[in-house]
Amino acid sequence: MESLRDTVPASAEVAAARERFPVLEQVAYLNAGTFGPLSRDTLRVMREEQERDLLEGRTGLPYFLDTLGLRVEMRARVAELVGADAAAVALTTSTTEGCNIVAAGLGLGPDDEVVTTTDEHFGLLGALAASGARVVVVPPDPERVLAAVTPRTRLLALSQVLWTTGALLPVAELREASGVPVLVDGAQSVGTIAVDAAGLDFLTISGQKWLCGPDATGALIVADPERLRVAAPSYFAQVSYDPDGSFVPREGAARFERSWWSRASLRGLLTALGERPAWGQRHALVMAARCRELLAPHVELVPGGASPLVAFRRPGGDAAELVQRLHEAGVRVRELPGRDLVRVSVGWWTTEGDLQRLLDGVRPAG
Ligand SMILES: Cc1ncc(COP(=O)(O)O)c(C=O)c1O
User: Fold this and answer.
1) What letter would DSSP give residue 161?
2) Could you tell me the distance, in angstroms and rounded to a whole number, from the CA of residue 58 to the centre of ligand 1?
């Protein structure tokens, strides 16, 4: 796993890191749970690659081999992030794609059950529904999850950090206690808390959120690639194939990869990963606690967890209207549909000034 620094950064260190993200000068960026901010250097390398594509063309063996080399580098970097083996990493375009690879690859049918929770994102739920299995939905409470396991349960499908409340689920413990393979939706955990892939069967990663990478980037960790079917093979799936399309799969999880990434995306995400401050995750948690402290007297805070997501309801409701009003005031948060909740994503880049801007927008109607 990536090493995290324990100490609180000096404010000059935070300011220097923030300086790389021009958008932070404009807005209080509190929505990395949807899309993270992009840095100047991430955009610079992406533009360089696009310019190269424009002027030199996307052609020639060296171009192809070099791009495949970037994929190898990317798998190694992602593996390092979550303490996995590079051979267990498949590059995807999103958490949603990762969930679909797993749910389709398990070959489930109506006699199989999958246990999930009421607080999962459609990126996971849609894949479960399409799998053909019976989907058993319980509240996001470890005991309720375990109680729902039957001899027919083939998969636990759970978020490590719930996108609704920011609460944490003990996914590795649930895997161990149930003995059932687990698909962990890591969209809101990788990049926000220390995530260890050890003991998890499948773990999804979104590149565009907390990792501050380009759109349509992500990864899936598959602990044992031999035990998952390649349900939707792309050219990357095989080392050789017959005229009827039957094929010998590649070694490792790379066989599950469904999509080509542009060089711009590859170099963009590598740059973004290289810029992550060692103190970032811990600092975000400190700022999230501060966010709760500031909001507490004015709103109904939803109980969360040790994650940088903070959800609240304003007395009198209408989260959508508040989110819109905050947007106009330069504060970026989101509404959680159907729950009348506002969600704040606190990043390592969040300052006291950002939180005061949030508070100013929340208070008048409170
Ligand atoms: C918990 C969770 N899962 C899945 C997704 C979908 O992520 P992606 O766009 O990478 O598929 C999100 C997006 O917000 C999410 O919060």
Assistant:
1) B
2) 31
